[in-house]
Protein backbone atom coordinates (compact mmCIF):
# COMPACT_ATOMS: atom_id res chain seq x y z
CA UNK A 1 0.00 0.00 0.00
CA UNK A 2 1.50 3.34 -1.00
CA UNK A 3 1.76 6.14 1.48
CA UNK A 4 -0.68 8.36 -0.40
CA UNK A 5 -3.33 5.78 0.36
CA UNK A 6 -2.73 6.09 4.09
CA UNK A 7 -5.74 8.16 4.80
CA UNK A 8 -6.79 9.25 8.21
CA UNK A 9 -10.07 7.71 9.31
CA UNK A 10 -12.31 10.09 11.22
CA UNK A 11 -14.34 8.74 14.15
CA UNK A 12 -17.81 7.44 13.51
CA UNK A 13 -20.48 9.50 15.14
CA UNK A 14 -22.13 8.36 18.33
CA UNK A 15 -21.74 8.72 22.05
CA UNK A 16 -18.38 7.62 23.38
CA UNK A 17 -17.45 7.16 27.01
CA UNK A 18 -14.55 9.54 26.47
CA UNK A 19 -16.01 12.36 24.38
CA UNK A 20 -13.18 14.86 24.58
CA UNK A 21 -9.72 13.34 24.74
CA UNK A 22 -7.56 16.50 24.53
CA UNK A 23 -9.55 18.17 27.28
CA UNK A 24 -9.66 15.13 29.58
CA UNK A 25 -5.97 14.46 29.05
CA UNK A 26 -5.12 17.96 30.22
CA UNK A 27 -6.95 17.60 33.53
CA UNK A 28 -6.93 13.88 34.27
CA UNK A 29 -5.59 12.62 37.57
CA UNK A 30 -5.25 8.90 38.34
CA UNK A 31 -7.28 9.48 41.52
CA UNK A 32 -10.25 10.14 39.19
CA UNK A 33 -9.98 6.57 37.90
CA UNK A 34 -11.06 5.24 41.29
CA UNK A 35 -14.44 6.92 41.11
CA UNK A 36 -17.17 4.31 40.85
CA UNK A 37 -15.10 1.56 42.44
CA UNK A 38 -16.22 0.32 45.82
CA UNK A 39 -12.89 0.67 47.68
CA UNK A 40 -12.93 4.36 46.88
CA UNK A 41 -15.85 4.65 49.33
CA UNK A 42 -15.12 1.86 51.81
CA UNK A 43 -11.33 1.83 51.86
CA UNK A 44 -11.46 -1.96 51.47
CA UNK A 45 -9.78 -3.31 48.34
CA UNK A 46 -9.83 -6.58 46.50
CA UNK A 47 -9.86 -6.55 42.69
CA UNK A 48 -11.93 -9.76 42.54
CA UNK A 49 -14.60 -8.10 44.68
CA UNK A 50 -14.62 -5.03 42.41
CA UNK A 51 -14.79 -7.25 39.32
CA UNK A 52 -17.81 -9.39 40.29
CA UNK A 53 -19.24 -9.07 43.84
CA UNK A 54 -19.65 -5.29 43.64
CA UNK A 55 -22.20 -5.64 40.83
CA UNK A 56 -24.27 -8.11 42.84
CA UNK A 57 -24.22 -5.80 45.88
CA UNK A 58 -25.22 -2.90 43.62
CA UNK A 59 -28.32 -4.78 42.45
CA UNK A 60 -27.09 -6.08 39.08
CA UNK A 61 -26.87 -9.75 40.05
CA UNK A 62 -29.35 -10.81 37.38
CA UNK A 63 -27.45 -9.31 34.48
CA UNK A 64 -25.76 -11.86 32.20
CA UNK A 65 -22.04 -11.93 32.99
CA UNK A 66 -20.93 -14.46 30.38
CA UNK A 67 -21.89 -16.54 27.40
CA UNK A 68 -19.76 -19.61 26.82
CA UNK A 69 -19.69 -21.09 23.32
CA UNK A 70 -17.85 -24.24 22.29
CA UNK A 71 -19.11 -26.03 19.19
CA UNK A 72 -22.78 -26.63 19.92
CA UNK A 73 -22.40 -26.11 23.64
CA UNK A 74 -23.90 -22.95 25.18
CA UNK A 75 -23.72 -21.84 28.83
CA UNK A 76 -24.68 -18.47 30.30
CA UNK A 77 -24.17 -17.21 33.86
CA UNK A 78 -25.41 -14.09 35.61
CA UNK A 79 -23.15 -11.99 37.82
CA UNK A 80 -24.84 -13.58 40.84
CA UNK A 81 -24.00 -17.04 39.55
CA UNK A 82 -20.39 -16.08 38.87
CA UNK A 83 -20.14 -14.63 42.38
CA UNK A 84 -21.55 -17.79 43.95
CA UNK A 85 -19.19 -19.94 41.96
CA UNK A 86 -16.15 -17.90 42.96
CA UNK A 87 -17.29 -18.18 46.59
CA UNK A 88 -17.59 -21.90 46.18
CA UNK A 89 -14.12 -22.25 44.65
CA UNK A 90 -12.81 -19.90 47.36
CA UNK A 91 -14.16 -22.16 50.09
CA UNK A 92 -12.57 -25.23 48.52
CA UNK A 93 -9.23 -23.42 48.18
CA UNK A 94 -9.34 -22.32 51.81
CA UNK A 95 -10.17 -25.85 52.93
CA UNK A 96 -7.08 -26.94 51.06
CA UNK A 97 -4.95 -24.62 53.11
CA UNK A 98 -4.43 -21.73 50.67
CA UNK A 99 -3.52 -18.52 52.49
CA UNK A 100 -2.86 -14.94 51.50
CA UNK A 101 0.14 -14.54 49.21
CA UNK A 102 0.32 -18.20 48.11
CA UNK A 103 0.87 -18.80 44.40
CA UNK A 104 -1.98 -20.81 42.94
CA UNK A 105 -1.80 -21.75 39.26
CA UNK A 106 -4.72 -22.28 36.92
CA UNK A 107 -4.21 -24.59 33.95
CA UNK A 108 -7.53 -24.89 32.15
CA UNK A 109 -8.92 -24.41 28.67
CA UNK A 110 -10.89 -21.29 27.80
CA UNK A 111 -13.97 -22.21 29.86
CA UNK A 112 -16.00 -20.33 32.50
CA UNK A 113 -14.20 -22.43 35.16
CA UNK A 114 -10.86 -20.93 34.10
CA UNK A 115 -12.15 -17.39 34.71
CA UNK A 116 -13.89 -18.37 37.94
CA UNK A 117 -10.81 -20.17 39.27
CA UNK A 118 -8.59 -17.13 38.65
CA UNK A 119 -11.03 -14.83 40.44
CA UNK A 120 -11.49 -17.16 43.40
CA UNK A 121 -7.74 -17.37 43.99
CA UNK A 122 -7.50 -13.58 44.04
CA UNK A 123 -10.62 -13.24 46.17
CA UNK A 124 -8.97 -15.09 49.06
CA UNK A 125 -5.82 -13.00 48.78
CA UNK A 126 -3.63 -15.49 46.96
CA UNK A 127 -1.75 -14.80 43.70
CA UNK A 128 -3.20 -16.38 40.56
CA UNK A 129 -0.85 -17.79 37.93
CA UNK A 130 -2.84 -18.49 34.77
CA UNK A 131 -1.15 -20.83 32.31
CA UNK A 132 -1.81 -20.89 28.57
CA UNK A 133 -3.78 -24.03 27.74
CA UNK A 134 -1.34 -25.31 25.09
CA UNK A 135 1.71 -25.41 27.37
CA UNK A 136 3.57 -28.69 27.63
CA UNK A 137 5.44 -30.15 30.61
CA UNK A 138 8.58 -28.01 30.63
CA UNK A 139 6.68 -24.75 30.26
CA UNK A 140 4.36 -25.66 33.15
CA UNK A 141 7.24 -26.83 35.36
CA UNK A 142 9.52 -23.81 34.80
CA UNK A 143 6.78 -21.32 35.66
CA UNK A 144 5.48 -23.07 38.76
CA UNK A 145 8.96 -23.75 40.10
CA UNK A 146 10.09 -20.17 39.60
CA UNK A 147 7.59 -18.85 42.16
CA UNK A 148 7.14 -22.01 44.26
CA UNK A 149 3.49 -22.54 43.49
CA UNK A 150 1.71 -24.61 46.14
CA UNK A 151 -1.56 -25.47 44.45
CA UNK A 152 -2.80 -26.07 40.93
CA UNK A 153 -6.33 -26.03 39.57
CA UNK A 154 -6.52 -28.04 36.35
CA UNK A 155 -8.67 -30.77 34.82
CA UNK A 156 -8.30 -34.50 34.34
CA UNK A 157 -7.01 -34.17 30.76
CA UNK A 158 -4.54 -31.37 31.19
CA UNK A 159 -3.01 -32.88 34.33
CA UNK A 160 -1.24 -35.27 31.96
CA UNK A 161 1.01 -32.33 31.08
CA UNK A 162 1.84 -31.47 34.71
CA UNK A 163 5.16 -33.07 35.80
CA UNK A 164 4.20 -33.23 39.51
CA UNK A 165 7.36 -34.93 40.70
CA UNK A 166 9.49 -32.11 39.22
CA UNK A 167 7.62 -29.37 41.09
CA UNK A 168 8.63 -29.82 44.74
CA UNK A 169 6.54 -26.90 46.08
CA UNK A 170 3.33 -28.27 44.58
CA UNK A 171 1.32 -29.73 47.46
CA UNK A 172 -2.15 -30.04 45.99
CA UNK A 173 -3.77 -30.53 42.60
CA UNK A 174 -7.49 -29.84 42.38
CA UNK A 175 -9.63 -30.78 39.40
CA UNK A 176 -12.21 -28.27 38.24
CA UNK A 177 -14.62 -31.17 37.61
CA UNK A 178 -14.39 -32.19 41.29
CA UNK A 179 -14.71 -28.65 42.61
CA UNK A 180 -17.82 -28.19 40.48
CA UNK A 181 -19.35 -31.47 41.67
CA UNK A 182 -18.74 -31.01 45.36
CA UNK A 183 -21.23 -28.31 46.39
CA UNK A 184 -22.17 -29.78 49.76
CA UNK A 185 -20.85 -27.61 52.58
CA UNK A 186 -21.53 -24.34 50.68
CA UNK A 187 -22.53 -21.47 52.92
CA UNK A 188 -23.61 -17.94 52.18
CA UNK A 189 -20.37 -16.73 53.69
CA UNK A 190 -18.26 -14.18 51.83
CA UNK A 191 -14.68 -15.18 51.28
CA UNK A 192 -13.16 -11.83 50.36
CA UNK A 193 -9.78 -11.03 51.88
CA UNK A 194 -9.15 -7.25 52.00
CA UNK A 195 -5.79 -6.35 50.53
CA UNK A 196 -3.23 -3.62 50.51
CA UNK A 197 -2.97 -1.88 47.10
CA UNK A 198 0.61 -3.17 46.87
CA UNK A 199 -0.29 -6.82 47.55
CA UNK A 200 0.18 -9.15 44.56
CA UNK A 201 -2.80 -10.61 42.75
CA UNK A 202 -1.72 -11.99 39.37
CA UNK A 203 1.53 -13.38 37.97
CA UNK A 204 2.06 -13.72 34.22
CA UNK A 205 5.18 -15.33 32.81
CA UNK A 206 6.56 -13.61 29.76
CA UNK A 207 9.63 -13.96 27.59
CA UNK A 208 12.51 -11.63 26.97
CA UNK A 209 15.50 -12.14 24.69
CA UNK A 210 17.61 -13.73 27.41
CA UNK A 211 16.99 -16.36 30.05
CA UNK A 212 13.86 -18.24 30.98
CA UNK A 213 10.42 -16.59 31.15
CA UNK A 214 10.07 -13.98 33.90
CA UNK A 215 7.21 -13.74 36.39
CA UNK A 216 5.59 -10.32 36.07
CA UNK A 217 3.66 -9.64 39.28
CA UNK A 218 0.68 -7.29 39.29
CA UNK A 219 -0.70 -5.73 42.47
CA UNK A 220 -4.31 -5.00 43.43
CA UNK A 221 -3.76 -1.29 42.68
CA UNK A 222 -3.89 -2.13 38.95
CA UNK A 223 -7.69 -2.08 39.33
CA UNK A 224 -8.24 1.62 38.61
CA UNK A 225 -6.18 1.53 35.41
CA UNK A 226 -7.97 -1.56 34.11
CA UNK A 227 -11.35 -0.12 35.04
CA UNK A 228 -10.75 3.27 33.41
CA UNK A 229 -9.25 1.83 30.22
CA UNK A 230 -12.17 -0.60 29.96
CA UNK A 231 -14.51 2.35 30.14
CA UNK A 232 -12.69 4.66 27.73
CA UNK A 233 -10.82 2.41 25.31
CA UNK A 234 -13.10 -0.62 25.17
CA UNK A 235 -15.96 1.91 25.42
CA UNK A 236 -18.22 -0.55 27.26
CA UNK A 237 -21.85 0.41 27.78
CA UNK A 238 -24.59 -1.47 29.55
CA UNK A 239 -26.06 -3.31 26.56
CA UNK A 240 -22.79 -4.34 24.95
CA UNK A 241 -21.75 -7.91 24.26
CA UNK A 242 -17.97 -8.01 24.49
CA UNK A 243 -15.62 -10.62 23.08
CA UNK A 244 -11.87 -10.80 23.62
CA UNK A 245 -10.38 -13.74 21.73
CA UNK A 246 -7.30 -14.26 23.92
CA UNK A 247 -6.84 -17.02 26.54
CA UNK A 248 -6.41 -15.72 30.15
CA UNK A 249 -2.97 -17.36 30.19
CA UNK A 250 -1.87 -14.29 28.20
CA UNK A 251 -2.18 -10.84 29.70
CA UNK A 252 -4.62 -9.66 27.03
CA UNK A 253 -6.92 -12.53 27.97
CA UNK A 254 -6.77 -11.80 31.70
CA UNK A 255 -6.77 -7.99 31.71
CA UNK A 256 -9.05 -7.35 28.71
CA UNK A 257 -10.76 -10.75 28.62
CA UNK A 258 -11.74 -10.78 32.28
CA UNK A 259 -10.89 -7.81 34.54
CA UNK A 260 -11.48 -4.67 32.46
CA UNK A 261 -14.77 -5.81 30.87
CA UNK A 262 -16.21 -7.19 34.09
CA UNK A 263 -15.06 -4.16 36.10
CA UNK A 264 -17.32 -2.30 33.66
CA UNK A 265 -20.11 -4.85 34.09
CA UNK A 266 -19.99 -6.07 30.48
CA UNK A 267 -21.57 -9.28 29.26
CA UNK A 268 -18.55 -11.19 27.99
CA UNK A 269 -18.18 -14.01 25.51
CA UNK A 270 -15.89 -16.95 26.23
CA UNK A 271 -15.18 -19.03 23.17
CA UNK A 272 -13.65 -22.48 23.36
CA UNK A 273 -12.10 -24.28 20.41
CA UNK A 274 -9.67 -23.28 17.72
CA UNK A 275 -9.66 -20.46 15.19
CA UNK A 276 -11.91 -20.93 12.20
CA UNK A 277 -13.28 -17.98 10.23
CA UNK A 278 -16.77 -19.47 9.88
CA UNK A 279 -17.02 -20.18 13.62
CA UNK A 280 -15.89 -16.71 14.56
CA UNK A 281 -18.31 -14.95 12.24
CA UNK A 282 -21.13 -17.26 13.33
CA UNK A 283 -20.44 -16.44 16.96
CA UNK A 284 -20.52 -12.68 16.32
CA UNK A 285 -23.80 -13.01 14.44
CA UNK A 286 -25.45 -15.35 16.93
CA UNK A 287 -24.52 -13.50 20.12
CA UNK A 288 -24.68 -10.07 18.50
CA UNK A 289 -21.18 -9.21 19.64
CA UNK A 290 -20.81 -5.41 19.65
CA UNK A 291 -17.21 -4.97 20.89
CA UNK A 292 -14.47 -7.23 19.67
CA UNK A 293 -10.83 -7.30 20.82
CA UNK A 294 -8.40 -9.45 18.84
CA UNK A 295 -4.96 -9.41 17.19
CA UNK A 296 -3.56 -8.55 13.75
CA UNK A 297 -2.75 -12.15 12.85
CA UNK A 298 -6.38 -13.15 13.42
CA UNK A 299 -7.62 -10.21 11.34
CA UNK A 300 -5.17 -11.09 8.55
CA UNK A 301 -6.38 -14.68 8.60
CA UNK A 302 -9.97 -13.48 8.29
CA UNK A 303 -9.02 -11.08 5.52
CA UNK A 304 -7.39 -13.91 3.57
CA UNK A 305 -10.67 -15.86 3.68
CA UNK A 306 -12.21 -13.20 1.45
CA UNK A 307 -15.96 -13.21 1.04
CA UNK A 308 -16.75 -15.71 3.80
CA UNK A 309 -17.89 -12.79 5.90
CA UNK A 310 -20.67 -11.95 3.44
CA UNK A 311 -22.60 -15.03 4.65
CA UNK A 312 -23.01 -13.59 8.14
CA UNK A 313 -24.88 -10.68 9.64
CA UNK A 314 -22.10 -8.82 11.42
CA UNK A 315 -24.03 -5.58 11.84
CA UNK A 316 -23.94 -5.82 15.65
CA UNK A 317 -20.21 -4.94 15.62
CA UNK A 318 -19.71 -1.31 16.57
CA UNK A 319 -16.19 -1.25 18.00
CA UNK A 320 -13.11 -3.34 17.15
CA UNK A 321 -9.72 -3.28 18.87
CA UNK A 322 -6.35 -4.86 18.21
CA UNK A 323 -3.19 -5.52 20.21
CA UNK A 324 0.05 -7.46 20.39
CA UNK A 325 1.81 -6.82 17.07
CA UNK A 326 1.93 -4.18 14.36
CA UNK A 327 -1.48 -3.60 12.81
CA UNK A 328 -0.92 -3.01 9.12
CA UNK A 329 -3.04 -0.30 7.44
CA UNK A 330 -4.34 -2.81 4.89
CA UNK A 331 -6.23 -4.60 7.67
CA UNK A 332 -7.75 -1.37 8.96
CA UNK A 333 -9.00 -0.47 5.45
CA UNK A 334 -10.39 -4.00 5.02
CA UNK A 335 -12.51 -3.73 8.19
CA UNK A 336 -13.53 -0.21 7.30
CA UNK A 337 -14.70 -1.27 3.83
CA UNK A 338 -16.21 -4.66 4.69
CA UNK A 339 -17.67 -3.98 8.11
CA UNK A 340 -17.93 -0.21 8.22
CA UNK A 341 -16.02 -0.25 11.50
CA UNK A 342 -12.53 0.97 12.31
CA UNK A 343 -9.96 -1.22 14.03
CA UNK A 344 -8.47 0.59 17.02
CA UNK A 345 -4.88 -0.40 17.69
CA UNK A 346 -3.68 -0.38 21.30
CA UNK A 347 -0.21 -0.71 22.77
CA UNK A 348 0.83 -2.02 26.16
CA UNK A 349 2.81 -4.91 27.59
CA UNK A 350 2.51 -7.64 30.20
CA UNK A 351 4.66 -5.44 32.44
CA UNK A 352 2.45 -2.36 32.09
CA UNK A 353 -0.75 -3.90 33.49
CA UNK A 354 -3.09 -2.07 31.14
CA UNK A 355 -3.25 0.19 28.04
CA UNK A 356 -0.67 2.95 27.63
CA UNK A 357 -1.01 4.05 23.99
CA UNK A 358 -4.45 3.84 22.45
CA UNK A 359 -6.75 4.74 19.62
CA UNK A 360 -10.01 6.00 21.09
CA UNK A 361 -13.39 5.60 19.42
CA UNK A 362 -13.97 9.37 19.44
CA UNK A 363 -10.62 10.32 17.89
CA UNK A 364 -9.18 10.10 14.39
CA UNK A 365 -7.06 7.10 13.46
CA UNK A 366 -3.83 7.39 11.51
CA UNK A 367 -3.36 3.91 10.06
CA UNK A 368 0.10 2.67 10.99
CA UNK A 369 0.00 4.38 14.39
CA UNK A 370 -0.73 2.67 17.71
CA UNK A 371 -2.49 5.83 18.85
CA UNK A 372 -1.82 8.42 21.52
CA UNK A 373 -1.02 8.21 25.25
CA UNK A 374 -3.88 7.22 27.53
CA UNK A 375 -4.83 10.14 29.83
CA UNK A 376 -2.42 10.17 32.77
CA UNK A 377 0.30 8.52 30.66
CA UNK A 378 3.35 10.38 29.40
CA UNK A 379 5.32 8.79 26.57
CA UNK A 380 8.95 9.66 25.85
CA UNK A 381 11.01 8.66 22.84
CA UNK A 382 14.55 8.53 24.19
CA UNK A 383 18.03 8.41 22.72
CA UNK A 384 20.88 6.32 24.16
CA UNK A 385 21.61 9.02 26.75
CA UNK A 386 18.00 8.94 27.96
CA UNK A 387 17.19 12.33 26.41
CA UNK A 388 13.97 12.98 24.51
CA UNK A 389 14.55 13.02 20.73
CA UNK A 390 13.00 15.33 18.14
CA UNK A 391 9.48 14.50 16.93
CA UNK A 392 9.59 12.11 14.00
CA UNK A 393 12.90 10.58 15.09
CA UNK A 394 12.94 6.93 16.07
CA UNK A 395 14.15 6.12 19.57
CA UNK A 396 13.43 3.98 22.61
CA UNK A 397 9.76 3.98 23.59
CA UNK A 398 9.60 4.89 27.28
CA UNK A 399 6.86 5.84 29.72
CA UNK A 400 7.06 8.23 32.70
CA UNK A 401 6.81 6.35 36.01
CA UNK A 402 4.72 5.52 37.94
CA UNK A 403 1.17 4.66 36.89
CA UNK A 404 -1.34 2.34 38.62
CA UNK A 405 -0.98 -0.61 36.26
CA UNK A 406 2.82 -0.81 36.34
CA UNK A 407 4.06 -4.23 37.50
CA UNK A 408 5.08 -4.53 41.13
CA UNK A 409 8.08 -6.76 40.54
CA UNK A 410 9.67 -9.48 38.46
CA UNK A 411 9.40 -12.50 40.71
CA UNK A 412 12.69 -13.13 42.50
CA UNK A 413 14.68 -11.09 39.98
CA UNK A 414 15.45 -7.57 41.12
CA UNK A 415 18.17 -7.09 38.49
CA UNK A 416 15.78 -7.81 35.69
CA UNK A 417 13.18 -5.50 37.25
CA UNK A 418 15.74 -2.70 37.61
CA UNK A 419 16.78 -3.08 33.97
CA UNK A 420 13.45 -1.56 32.90
CA UNK A 421 14.27 1.64 34.79
CA UNK A 422 17.80 2.46 33.70
CA UNK A 423 16.85 6.07 32.88
CA UNK A 424 15.67 7.91 35.99
CA UNK A 425 11.89 8.45 35.97
CA UNK A 426 11.22 6.28 32.92
CA UNK A 427 10.02 2.75 32.22
CA UNK A 428 11.82 1.37 29.18
CA UNK A 429 9.65 -0.82 26.96
CA UNK A 430 12.27 -2.40 24.72
CA UNK A 431 10.33 -1.19 21.65
CA UNK A 432 11.57 1.38 19.14
CA UNK A 433 9.09 3.98 17.92
CA UNK A 434 8.63 7.60 16.86
CA UNK A 435 6.01 10.14 17.78
CA UNK A 436 4.56 12.75 15.40
CA UNK A 437 3.64 16.38 16.10
CA UNK A 438 0.14 15.36 17.18
CA UNK A 439 1.46 12.82 19.71
CA UNK A 440 0.59 9.74 17.62
CA UNK A 441 3.09 6.92 18.29
CA UNK A 442 4.39 4.75 15.44
CA UNK A 443 5.92 1.36 16.29
CA UNK A 444 9.13 0.55 14.39
CA UNK A 445 10.55 -2.67 15.84
CA UNK A 446 11.77 -4.35 19.00
CA UNK A 447 15.11 -3.19 20.32
CA UNK A 448 16.11 -6.75 21.26
CA UNK A 449 15.89 -10.32 19.94
CA UNK A 450 12.39 -11.02 21.24
CA UNK A 451 10.18 -12.78 18.69
CA UNK A 452 6.57 -11.78 18.12
CA UNK A 453 4.63 -14.47 16.30
CA UNK A 454 0.88 -13.99 16.00
CA UNK A 455 1.11 -11.49 18.85
CA UNK A 456 2.68 -14.08 21.12
CA UNK A 457 5.93 -13.11 22.74
CA UNK A 458 8.57 -15.79 22.32
CA UNK A 459 12.01 -15.73 23.91
CA UNK A 460 14.67 -17.15 21.58
CA UNK A 461 16.70 -18.37 24.57
CA UNK A 462 13.94 -20.67 25.78
CA UNK A 463 13.66 -22.28 22.34
CA UNK A 464 17.43 -22.52 21.87
CA UNK A 465 17.83 -24.19 25.28
CA UNK A 466 15.26 -26.77 24.35
CA UNK A 467 16.82 -27.38 20.93
CA UNK A 468 20.26 -28.12 22.32
CA UNK A 469 18.73 -30.72 24.64
CA UNK A 470 18.10 -32.75 21.49
CA UNK A 471 20.85 -35.32 20.93
CA UNK A 472 21.48 -34.27 17.33
CA UNK A 473 22.02 -30.58 18.04
CA UNK A 474 25.27 -28.98 19.00
CA UNK A 475 24.32 -25.31 18.71
CA UNK A 476 21.19 -23.34 17.94
CA UNK A 477 20.27 -19.74 17.15
CA UNK A 478 16.62 -18.76 16.96
CA UNK A 479 15.12 -15.69 15.29
CA UNK A 480 11.78 -14.28 14.14
CA UNK A 481 11.54 -14.47 10.35
CA UNK A 482 9.17 -11.90 8.82
CA UNK A 483 5.88 -13.46 7.74
CA UNK A 484 2.93 -11.88 5.94
CA UNK A 485 0.23 -13.40 8.15
CA UNK A 486 1.86 -14.10 11.51
CA UNK A 487 4.13 -11.06 11.65
CA UNK A 488 7.04 -13.35 12.37
CA UNK A 489 7.57 -17.10 12.47
CA UNK A 490 10.09 -18.92 14.63
CA UNK A 491 13.13 -19.96 12.61
CA UNK A 492 16.00 -22.01 14.03
CA UNK A 493 19.53 -22.25 12.70
CA UNK A 494 21.29 -25.32 14.02
CA UNK A 495 24.66 -27.00 13.88
CA UNK A 496 24.46 -30.79 14.03
CA UNK A 497 26.65 -32.94 16.24
CA UNK A 498 29.18 -35.27 14.63
CA UNK A 499 27.57 -38.41 13.34
CA UNK A 500 24.19 -36.82 12.54
CA UNK A 501 23.07 -36.26 8.97
CA UNK A 502 20.48 -33.72 7.92
CA UNK A 503 17.23 -35.31 6.73
CA UNK A 504 13.57 -34.22 6.57
CA UNK A 505 12.79 -36.87 9.21
CA UNK A 506 15.39 -35.52 11.61
CA UNK A 507 14.18 -31.92 11.23
CA UNK A 508 10.60 -33.04 11.78
CA UNK A 509 11.66 -34.98 14.88
CA UNK A 510 13.36 -31.84 16.24
CA UNK A 511 10.24 -29.76 15.62
CA UNK A 512 8.07 -32.31 17.42
CA UNK A 513 10.59 -32.45 20.27
CA UNK A 514 10.15 -28.71 20.95
CA UNK A 515 6.40 -28.85 20.45
CA UNK A 516 5.93 -31.77 22.85
CA UNK A 517 8.13 -30.35 25.58
CA UNK A 518 7.46 -26.60 25.46
CA UNK A 519 4.46 -25.58 23.36
CA UNK A 520 3.32 -25.74 19.75
CA UNK A 521 3.51 -21.99 19.15
CA UNK A 522 7.24 -21.83 20.00
CA UNK A 523 8.29 -24.84 17.88
CA UNK A 524 10.40 -23.65 14.90
CA UNK A 525 8.37 -23.55 11.69
CA UNK A 526 11.64 -23.54 9.78
CA UNK A 527 14.94 -25.19 10.65
CA UNK A 528 18.10 -24.59 8.70
CA UNK A 529 21.25 -26.62 9.22
CA UNK A 530 24.50 -24.64 9.19
CA UNK A 531 28.19 -25.54 9.29
CA UNK A 532 28.68 -22.94 12.02
CA UNK A 533 26.82 -20.02 13.58
CA UNK A 534 28.01 -16.39 13.65
CA UNK A 535 29.39 -15.51 17.10
CA UNK A 536 30.98 -12.63 18.93
CA UNK A 537 34.74 -13.01 18.88
CA UNK A 538 35.22 -12.33 22.58
CA UNK A 539 32.46 -14.16 24.44
CA UNK A 540 31.41 -16.56 21.69
CA UNK A 541 27.76 -15.58 22.04
CA UNK A 542 25.58 -16.45 19.07
CA UNK A 543 24.77 -13.35 17.02
CA UNK A 544 21.04 -13.62 16.40
CA UNK A 545 21.03 -10.25 14.71
CA UNK A 546 23.44 -11.51 12.08
CA UNK A 547 21.21 -14.52 11.46
CA UNK A 548 18.21 -12.27 11.10
CA UNK A 549 19.97 -9.87 8.76
CA UNK A 550 21.15 -12.77 6.70
CA UNK A 551 17.66 -14.27 6.54
CA UNK A 552 16.07 -10.99 5.47
CA UNK A 553 18.71 -10.33 2.81
CA UNK A 554 18.30 -13.85 1.49
CA UNK A 555 14.55 -13.29 1.11
CA UNK A 556 15.33 -10.12 -0.88
C1 LIG B 1 5.14 -6.46 23.15
C2 LIG B 1 4.47 -6.82 24.46
C3 LIG B 1 -0.17 -6.67 26.38
C4 LIG B 1 -0.50 -6.72 24.97
C5 LIG B 1 -0.23 -8.04 24.33
C6 LIG B 1 1.24 -8.35 24.11
C7 LIG B 1 4.40 -5.78 21.05
C8 LIG B 1 2.13 -4.93 21.71
C9 LIG B 1 1.61 -3.75 19.96
C10 LIG B 1 1.06 -2.93 18.95
C11 LIG B 1 3.06 -3.24 17.71
C12 LIG B 1 2.89 -4.29 19.76
C13 LIG B 1 5.52 -4.85 21.52
C14 LIG B 1 5.48 -5.01 23.03
N1 LIG B 1 3.18 -5.03 20.87
N2 LIG B 1 1.17 -4.17 21.18
N3 LIG B 1 -0.16 -2.37 19.06
N4 LIG B 1 1.82 -2.71 17.83
N5 LIG B 1 3.61 -4.04 18.64
O1 LIG B 1 1.88 -8.26 25.34
O2 LIG B 1 3.29 -10.32 25.28
O3 LIG B 1 3.76 -8.46 26.90
O4 LIG B 1 4.23 -8.20 24.44
O5 LIG B 1 4.23 -6.74 22.09
O6 LIG B 1 6.73 -5.28 21.01
O7 LIG B 1 6.70 -4.69 23.66
P1 LIG B 1 3.31 -8.87 25.55
Automatic annotation (TrEMBL):
User: So what EC number does this one have?
Assistant: 6.2.1.1
Residues annotated as domain AMP-binding enzyme C-terminal: 462-541
Q: Which domain of life is it from?
A: Bacteria
Where do the AMP-dependent synthetase/ligase domain residues begin and end? 58-411
Q: Does the keyword Lipid biosynthesis apply?
A: no
Assigned keywords, A-Z: Acetylation, ATP-binding, Ligase, Nucleotide-binding
Q: Which Pfam families match?
A: AMP-binding, AMP-binding_C
- Identify this protein by name: Putative long chain fatty acid-CoA ligase VraA
Asked if the keyword NAD belongs to this entry, the reply reads no
Q: Which InterPro entries match?
A: AMP-bd_C (IPR025110), AMP-bd_C_sf (IPR045851), AMP-binding_CS (IPR020845), AMP-dep_synth/lig_dom (IPR000873), ANL_N_sf (IPR042099)
Q: What GO molecular-function term can you cite, just one?
A: acetate-CoA ligase activity
Amino acid sequence: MSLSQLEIIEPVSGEHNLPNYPEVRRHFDWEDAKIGLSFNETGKLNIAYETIDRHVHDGHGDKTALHYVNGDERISYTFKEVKEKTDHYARVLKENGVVKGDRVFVFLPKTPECYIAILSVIKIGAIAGPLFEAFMEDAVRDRMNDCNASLLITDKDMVERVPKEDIPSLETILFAEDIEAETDGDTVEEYVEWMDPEDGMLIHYTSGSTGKPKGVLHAHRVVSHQYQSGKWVLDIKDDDVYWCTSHPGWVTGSVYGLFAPWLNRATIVIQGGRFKAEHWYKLIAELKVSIWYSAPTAFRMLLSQGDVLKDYDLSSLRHILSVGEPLNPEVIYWAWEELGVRIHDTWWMTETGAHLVVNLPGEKIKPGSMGRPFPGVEVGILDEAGEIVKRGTTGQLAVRTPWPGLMKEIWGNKDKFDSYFKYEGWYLSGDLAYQDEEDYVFFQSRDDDMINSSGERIGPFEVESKLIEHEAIQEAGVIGKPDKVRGEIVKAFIVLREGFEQSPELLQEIRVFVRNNLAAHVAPKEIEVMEELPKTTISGKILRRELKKWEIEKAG
